[in-house]
């Protein structure tokens, strides 16, 4: 899957970037610690939701990906991490 960057370029989607962003956001929240396994599950949920929305052939925007990440975090009970992610 490709993503449309904010400047209009197309770039291959990289799960590692999502993993790193979630890891960093969770470290900024006191009292909620995500372990590697938790983050992997969240990343897979995010990827599945993106595939449902766009499929593998249609590029997704970085804004859409951010929205999906926030939605998945909130739905899974990690609203404080979603807030930290937005601020990150």
TrEMBL record:
<dbReference type="GO" id="GO:0005524">
    <property type="term" value="F:ATP binding"/>
</dbReference>
<keyword id="KW-0547">Nucleotide-binding</keyword>
<keyword id="KW-0067">ATP-binding</keyword>
<protein>
    <submittedName>
        <fullName>Ribonucleotide-diphosphate reductase subunit alpha</fullName>
    </submittedName>
</protein>
<feature type="domain" description="ATP-cone">
    <location>
        <begin position="1"/>
        <end position="88"/>
    </location>
</feature>
<dbReference type="Pfam" id="PF03477">
    <property type="entry name" value="ATP-cone"/>
</dbReference>
<dbReference type="InterPro" id="IPR005144">
    <property type="entry name" value="ATP-cone_dom"/>
</dbReference>
């Amino acid at each position: 899957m490709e993503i449309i960057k904010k400047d209009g370029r197309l770039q291959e989607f990289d799960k590692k970037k999502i993993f790193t962003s979630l890891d960093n956001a969770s470290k900024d929240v006191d009292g909620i610690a995500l372990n590697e396994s938790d983050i992997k599950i969240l990343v897979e949920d995010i990827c599945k939701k993106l595939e449902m929305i766009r499929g593998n052939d249609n590029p997704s925007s970085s804004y859409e990906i951010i929205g999906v990440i926030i939605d998945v975090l909130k739905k899974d009970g990690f609203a404080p991490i979603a807030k930290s992610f937005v601020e990150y």
